[in-house]
Design brief:
The protein has helices spanning about 10-20, 35-45, 60-70, 90-100, 110-120, 130-140, 155-165, 170-180, 185-195, 200-210; strands at about 1-5, 25-35, 50-55, 80-85, 100-105. The chain is an alpha/beta fold. Strands 2-1-3-4-5 form a 5-stranded parallel sheet, with helices on both faces. It is globular. It holds the Pfam family GerE.
């Protein structure tokens, strides 16, 4: 059973998502919150698999809520999915940097929404390569000073290569083709790199790759 926490300041939005989710045999809404602070408290109480968090809320917004969940070791199993009306705007970008597994636009089709919840529950990031490339565009527009190594010395050469390709927007199949390996081996390299870098998901792996200096927008 996939356990879901809904965090949105609009009761009608929460009610619509709850009705859709509770109609599924394998999904259960365990709690609802009207702001990010309450959402974090309920996440600690219920330990859901997925927290669907509105990016813009009063009191504590979705970015801060995401950061608190991502930084709490007790909530390592909770995958935050940001809900937005606006697509990949600055707020969503900052939420992904804070540790969100991905984002969904609120006008998504119901079947696509349910599929996305199940994808996130498996631990896969809700970031298509096209979205990864939009993240890269943000790094090009707002280049960052490289942070510390963030554990890069623990990566093998092949894992570093795979991470660099992820950071440039390639899918696992494209990584496999570029590295002349099987897609399963490519996925293994990516997953091991995520573990070593303590990245919660593929979205955070992209951010870490740029922040660590492993790749830069000016050196593809």
């Amino acid at each position: 059973m996939i356990r879901v926490l809904l965090v949105d300041d609009q009761p009608l939005i929460r009610g619509g998502f709850r009705a859709l989710l509770d109609a599924e045999d394998d999904i259960e809404v365990v709690a609802e919150a009207a702001d990010g602070g309450e959402g974090v408290a309920l996440a600690r109480q219920h330990l859901p698999d997925i927290a669907l968090v509105d990016v813009r809320m009063p009191v504590v917004d979705g970015i801060e809520a995401t950061r608190r969940i991502a930084e709490d070791p007790a909530l390592a199993q909770v995958h935050v999915v940001i809900l937005t009306n606006y697509g990949l705007d600055e707020h969503v970008f900052n939420a992904l940097r804070a540790g969100a597994a991905g984002f969904l636009v609120k006008d998504i089709e119901p079947e696509d929404f349910l599929h996305a919840v199940r994808v996130a529950a498996r631990g896969d990031a809700l970031l298509a390569p096209s979205i990864t490339r939009k993240l890269i565009d943000r790094f090009v527009a707002q280049p960052l000073e490289p942070a510390t190594g963030r554990g890069l010395e623990e990566l093998t050469n092949r894992e570093r290569e795979a991470v660099a390709l992820v950071a440039h927007g390639l899918s696992n199949d494209e990584i496999a083709e570029r590295m002349v390996i099987t897609p399963m081996t490519a996925k293994t390299h990516v997953n091991r790199a995520m573990t070593k870098l303590r990245a919660r998901d593929r979205a955070q792996l992209v951010v870490l790759a740029y922040e660590s200096g492993l790749v830069t927008p000016r050196n593809p």
